């Protein structure tokens, strides 16, 4: 394959990945998503009805119903990255005498991450049940700002504890609801926020470690090829040093899969890194994504089941009170790692 074809495929795949990640893991009403939704509408006006209906149904099934699909996608991508790493990078780095210790870092991280991933999937996030609801109601006080006492979930027919929310994908109310994560096919709530946080950071570490080792390999490959000192004769017969474009082209053609993987991982590293930092911030200020979002005065259907779909939370967000619930960073963090249990009465 020639350089341009390869490069075009590469760019197309990267853009598709970026697009999908932004569309489906971001906040539903971010400016970015608004733009994407607009783009979707434009595209939709050119597609036939049956295709639209089919894609709508598929999207619904993928993102609004529980399914393990994304867990499999996750494992598949991971498998591909690790196969590629083991097959091409590991051996090369061994020859360039990178220590075995640094080369084993990605594998250790993989084991750790898989364990956390499993916990995140399997842990009950804190489902509000008939049996437990009476104790769950005492975990947090109602703030009468975002959460009001005496509101029942119309679906579960149970009184909603403060900070809980009904997950429409799982069809249950979850205590200290954060969000529903399609990648773990589970809600993130009181009992698994800690795993989710660790999961994000371990995934980042994995992407970072493999990227560094791969970068190291490519650097060695460039040095070894001698391209940096090479030159070529241009069309006027002048000798020109081979510039960076030459190096890139050379790497692309020699290690297409490795470059591909590196691009993917670097992208992942920054996206996940940002997301992990956001969740760390939320953990530190004792907020859930759900609350963060609501207190920004975004659309809220949860203050009151009867509220119009587009009413604004009242009172209107007061930014001076954004850390209203925080009792200090460490205590907030402790609450993530040792979530309050239903039996515990609040305020002692
Ligand atoms: C976190 O916020 C809740 C109210 O939403 C509060 O009851 C709880 O005590 C806070 N926890 C900490 C550690 O500040
Ligand atoms: Zn419910
Ligand atoms: Zn859910």
Description:
The chain has one domain. It is 56% helix and 5% strand. The protein has helices at 3-25, 31-44, 49-63, 69-95, 100-122, 133-136, 193-225, 244-254, 256-284, 289-295, 329-337, and strands spanning 165-167, 172-174, 179-181, 186-188, 231-233, 239-241. The strands form three sheets. A two-stranded antiparallel ribbon has the order 1-2. Strands 3-4 form a two-stranded antiparallel ribbon. Strands 5-6 form a two-stranded antiparallel ribbon. It is elongated. Mean pLDDT is 83; it is low at 298-306, 308-313, 315-320 and 344-348. Residues 140-141, 143, 163, 286, 325-327, 331-332, 335 line the site of 2-acetamido-2-deoxy-beta-D-glucopyranose (NAG).
Beta-strand residue fraction: 5-15%
How much helix is in the residues?
A: 55-70%
Q: What is the straight-line distance between the termini? A: 69 Å
Low-confidence stretches: 298-306, 308-313, 315-320, 344-348
String of helices and strands:
HHHHHHEEEEHEEHHHH
The molecules bound to the chains, other than polymers, are: 2-acetamido-2-deoxy-beta-D-glucopyranose, zinc ion
Largest sheet: 2 strands, antiparallel
Shape: elongated
Rg to the nearest angstrom?
25 Å
How many individual helices? 11
User: How do the strands line up in the largest sheet?
Assistant: 1-2
Number of DSSP E strands: 6
* Helix/strand/pairing category: mainly alpha
Q: What is the mean pLDDT?
A: 83
Q: What is the total domain count?
A: 1
Task: Lay out the secondary structure.
Layout: H1 3-25, H2 31-44, H3 49-63, H4 69-95, H5 100-122, H6 133-136, E1 165-167, E2 172-174, E3 179-181, E4 186-188, H7 193-225, E5 231-233, E6 239-241, H8 244-254, H9 256-284, H10 289-295, H11 329-337
Antiparallel strand pairs: 1-2, 3-4, 5-6
Helix pairs in contact: 1-9, 4-7, 5-7, 7-9, 8-9
Bound molecules: 2-acetamido-2-deoxy-beta-D-glucopyranose (NAG) and zinc ion (ZN) (2 copies).
Residues 153, 155-156, 166, 172-173 line the site of one zinc ion.
Transmembrane segments: 6-26, 69-87, 99-121, 196-219, 258-284
Catalytic activity: L-cysteinyl-[protein] + hexadecanoyl-CoA = S-hexadecanoyl-L-cysteinyl-[protein] + CoA
Domain Palmitoyltransferase DHHC: 152-295
């Amino acid at each position: 394959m020639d350089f341009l074809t390869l490069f075009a495929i590469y760019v197309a795949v990267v853009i598709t990945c970026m697009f999908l990640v932004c569309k489906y893991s971001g906040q539903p009403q971010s400016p970015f998503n608004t733009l994407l939704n607009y783009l979707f509408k434009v595209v939709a006006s050119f597609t036939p009805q049956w295709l639209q209906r089919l894609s709508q149904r598929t999207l619904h099934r993928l993102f609004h119903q529980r399914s393990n699909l994304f867990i499999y996608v996750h494992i598949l991508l991971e498998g591909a990255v690790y196969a590629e790493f083991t097959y091409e990078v590991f051996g090369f780095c061994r020859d360039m005498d990178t220590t075995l210790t640094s080369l084993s870092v990605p594998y250790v991280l993989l084991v750790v991450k898989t364990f956390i991933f499993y916990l995140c999937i399997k842990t009950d996030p804190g489902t509000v049940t008939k049996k437990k609801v009476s104790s769950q109601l005492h975990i947090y006080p109602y703030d009468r700002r975002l959460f009001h006492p005496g509101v029942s979930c119309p679906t579960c027919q149970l009184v909603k504890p403060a900070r809980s929310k009904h997950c429409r994908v799982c069809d249950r109310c979850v205590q200290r609801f954060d969000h529903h994560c399609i990648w773990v096919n589970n809600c993130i709530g009181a009992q698994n926020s800690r795993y989710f946080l660790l999961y994000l950071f371990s995934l980042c570490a994995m992407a970072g470690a493999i990227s560094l080792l791969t970068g190291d390999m490519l650097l060695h490959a460039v040095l070894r090829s001698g391209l940096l000192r090479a030159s070529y004769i241009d069309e006027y017969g002048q000798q020109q040093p081979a510039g960076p474009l030459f190096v890139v082209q050379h790497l692309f053609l020699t290690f297409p899969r490795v470059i591909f993987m590196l691009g993917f991982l670097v992208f992942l590293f920054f996206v996940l890194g940002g997301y992990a930092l956001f969740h760390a911030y939320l953990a530190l200020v004792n907020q859930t994504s759900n609350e963060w979002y609501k207190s920004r005065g975004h659309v809220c259907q949860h203050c009151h089941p009867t509220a119009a779909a587009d009413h604004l939370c009242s009172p209107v967000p007061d930014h001076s009170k954004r850390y209203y619930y925080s009792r200090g960073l460490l205590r907030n963090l402790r609450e993530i790692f040792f979530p309050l249990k239903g039996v515990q009465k609040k305020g002692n």
